[in-house]
Specification:
The chain is built from nine helices and six strands. With 282 residues, the chain is an alpha/beta fold.
């Protein structure tokens, strides 16, 4: 007879439940995330729900580099540091290289021209900026949020590029062509309205204006400043209705493509062409 040793049976632990990414995304909303949702829900799914990583494009890299330099410029003005163009040219070159580390960008043999046009747009901005040399910023690259639960909406979050003296909110854009005067505010109204709400919630005060500073990197670089007065009640309601659409669509897992001209520059174009409706409703 073989002796046996009795051991208490321990049930196998179940694997941890996979977090519901779509549910997580309903707790907060940002202007950039909402813009992607309104542009194409399938692109939103690939980027934020499935979290499919794509290499940055040449335009994305140029924008990140220019944004980094402008952030340092604004911090320098806040600290009352003297302006020296050579300092920012050196910073631009170093950031252009540093921000590429660990990734691979398809330059199509045009990196030199991309770098040159980006720097010329920056240099032109420094020469033509409407911001006075002695004007001290109220805030630079500030992360803010607003609790919209009283409206039945998620927390609004965002990062404001610059708050000028006098409560003028500024967002910087690097562009390959001049924005249409008749459409620029309409195209960016969602973002500007969101920034106005965030500023008011954080300070208890009303912004005086909302500005877009477009650094246009054409052959002859341009600076185009577009200004909008403080957000109106109608613009706020319009934004809230858009957020409601986002909430309902996420709850339904309504991730469908929206083909259009924007598809030409989409990083998920190939993935989208393979999509057949499976996997996005799980």
């Amino acid at each position: 007879m073989i002796a046996t040793i009795e051991r208490p049976l321990t049930p196998r632990s179940k694997p941890a439940a996979k977090p519901d990414r779509a549910a997580e995304l309903r707790t907060t909303i940002s202007a950039s995330r909402l813009s992607v949702w309104l542009q194409c829900r399938l692109k939103f799914y690939f980027r934020y729900v499935a979290q499919i990583q794509r290499l940055p494009t040449a335009n994305m890299h140029a924008g990140s580099t220019v944004h980094s330099v402008l952030q340092n410029w604004n911090i320098g003005r806040w600290r009352r540091e003297p302006f020296a163009i050579e300092r920012f040219k050196t910073l631009f070159v170093s950031q252009w290289t540093r921000l590429q580390e660990g990734t691979r960008i398809n330059w199509r043999k045009e990196e030199a021209s991309e770098r040159s046009s980006s720097w010329r747009a920056l240099e032109n901005y420094f020469n033509q900026t409407p911001i006075g040399a002695n004007e001290k910023p109220q805030a630079v690259e500030v992360s803010v949020e607003a609790d919209l639960s009283r409206h039945g909406l998620p927390t609004l979050v965002g990062i404001i590029d610059l708050v000028r003296a006098g409560a003028r909110i500024v967002d910087f854009k690097l562009s390959g062509k001049s924005p249409s005067p008749g459409h620029v505010i309409h195209m960016h109204e969602l973002q500007l309205t969101a920034y106005g709400i965030l500023y008011r919630d954080a300070t208890g005060k009303k912004e005086s204006a909302l500005e877009l500073h477009h650094l246009v990197r054409t052959k002859e670089p341009k600076l185009i400043v577009s200004s909008m007065p403080p957000s109106t009640e109608n613009q706020k309601i319009r934004l809230f209705r858009q957020i409601e659409s986002y909430q309902v669509g996420l709850a339904r897992r309504d991730f469908v493509p929206s083909p259009g001209f924007h598809c030409a520059g989409c990083e998920y174009f190939t993935t989208c062409r393979l999509w057949c409706g499976k996997g996005t409703h799980a």
